[in-house]
Amino acid sequence: MTTTHEQSPAVRADPLSLPPQPVPDAVTAPFWAALAEGRLAMCRCGDCGLWLQPPLERCRRCAGPTRFADVAGTGTVYSFIVQHRATVPGYLDDLPYVVALVELDEQTGLRLPARIVGIDPAEVRCGLRVRAEFTELPGGDFTVAVFRPVDGP
Amino acid sequence: MSRSLGGAAVVGIGRSPFVRSSGRTTLSMAAQAAREALADCGLTAADVDGFTCYSTGDSAGPSQVAHAIGVDDLGWSLSVLGGGNIVTSTVAGAATAVLSGQAEVVVVYRVLGAQTRYGRALERVEVDGEGQFAGPHGYLVPPQWFAMFCRRHQYEYGSTAADLGAIAVQERDHAVRNPHAVARSPITLDDYLNSRWISEPFRLFDCCYEIDGAVAIVVTSAERAADLPHRPVHLLGAADSNRFGGSVDQWDDLSCMYSRDTAPRLWSRTGLQPADIDVACMYDCFTFTVMATFEDFGFCAKGEVGDYFRAGRATYGGDVVVNPHGGLLSEGYIHGLNHHYEAVLQLRGDAGDRQVSGAETALVTSGAGPFGGALVYGTVAP
Ligand SMILES: [Zn+2]
User: Fold this and answer.
1) Structural domain spans, chain A
2) Which residue in B54, B283, B341, B377 is the catalytic one?
3) Which site among A30, A35, A37, B238 is 20 to 30 Å from B302 CA-CA?
């Protein structure tokens, strides 16, 4: 994976044009590597099975070793905002856009912040069932998981 | 086990002007506030042996500020990394330093300059840490986080825009009587509802007023305080709570905040309850922060804050006066240390036009989301 310093000429060209680019570290890199392959994988304890977000090198409950494991990519909108004002770079042509905390089906309270696509912002509700899909992060070096409403549970 | 902070008192308060854009350095403003706080209590640089501040790495440090006002040697200097969440710990830490003999007179300050504006991050092109999961989705700054909290509260308890508006209108009404406040024009509920969306459900008037300025307070022992010019303001107790590593995304229940855990701890340590509080300086980075924490501290049930404010219970003549200075929403955002300034002014009886009659106890809260704290000041040592 390229570093964000190598990708930053485009960012420098117009600092507002691209959303913030992730800077993976030794623990989070597998999350981004999985997304690049079209998989959503989360950090999980190899001993007790606890899912950990943000990822940790060792489990906070039992200190067991962790690994990244694929998740189903389905979840529920726990809460959401409709962003009307440009306060963060990127997506300025998409205002207003929706960001939700999606609670993944694997574990109560296991949440990912993500854009919600494919629905009118006025129709989004807490409790909405959603499914992950993969899209290139503007900037070209990363893939992100956004979520789209699905029918039924 | 409960050990009291009551042997410590706040004896001096100082501040720089609060302005939208000062053109001044953080060192200049912090030094001014520290000098004023010492002059307020009749002490000089020669009396000071402790200095502490909290910051997000955006401020002149304690040793610099102490040096700038003429302190030659600090026996106790502590720079704390944190924001609104850490104010209580910092003030209580200063009191602890005094009570344990690490220092005799401690200046606590916070300064914010033009380089610090938390409400937007248009220059952030790369994000590490936990922000790497959120930033790429255009989700990175506090108004977005706490709008997320607010939405969940609306879902669970049916709170409304009008409820948030009642808080914004009340605080602005208080600021009208505060010459130091940056926003003193009254607003109506219609003004609130017509203000532009920022991060829905937050509008402009849900967000605090980010400014330049500095506040300093002087903490010393109750014994020494007895010889100083002002009525001492005693620390009656403090409590904090920190969960989920500060993660706003993973915090378990977005309809409440750290105060869910801090409140019982604080009331237990002080032996007080909400009905004992005369002035509540509620940390108000956003209107919703007041809503959630006010409920959590037990002033009313979940979902009832709007009715409470509309009934006049949060202002003069009501149950408790919330943010008589106008809070961070209207006096201005000095990261919550201005709440301590106001609490001291009120308990001295020196708040002028906005004096809360007979004020003897003040709750000061700090922080939002998964971490924060609160302390209680009183006119009588415990
Ligand atoms: Zn484990």
Assistant:
1) 24-70, 72-153
2) B283
3) B238
Query: Measured between alpha carbons, how far is residue B334 from residues A104, B18, B319 in Å?
Result: 38, 9, 26
Domains: count for chain B: 1
pLDDT digits (tens, 9 = 90+) for B276-308: 999 999 999 999 999 999 999 999 999 999 999
Q: Is residue B231 part of a domain?
A: no
* Displacement of CA B50 from its chain's centroid (Å): 21
Cβ–Cβ of B138/A21 closer than 8 Å? no
User: In chain A, which residues have their Cβ closer than 8 Å to the Cβ of B143?
Assistant: 87
Chain B residues touching A53 at Cβ < 8 A: 133, 249-250
How much is the pTM?
0.95
Residue B363 lies in a domain: no
Contact A85 B196 (CB under 8 A): yes
- The pair phi, psi for residue A115, each rounded to 5°, is -70, 145
Is B365 within 8 Å of B291 (Cβ atoms)?
A: no
**How high is the ipTM of this complex?**
0.95
Can you give the CATH number for the domain in which B96 is found?
3.40.47.10
Q: Beta strand pairing status for A51-52 and A41-45? A: antiparallel
Residue A57 Cα, ligand 1 centroid: separation in angstroms?
Answer: 11
> Would residue B158 count as lying in a domain?
no
pLDDT band at A15 (very low <50, low <70, confident <90, very high): low
Domain range holding B47? Answer: 8-117+210-225
Per-residue model confidence as pLDDT tens digits over A62-72: 999 999 999 99
Residues B137, A89: C-beta atoms closer than 8 Å = no
On whether residue B378 sits in a domain, the answer given is: no
Q: Is B283 a catalytic residue?
A: yes
Quick check: B1 pLDDT over 50?
Answer: no
What's the pLDDT at B67? 98
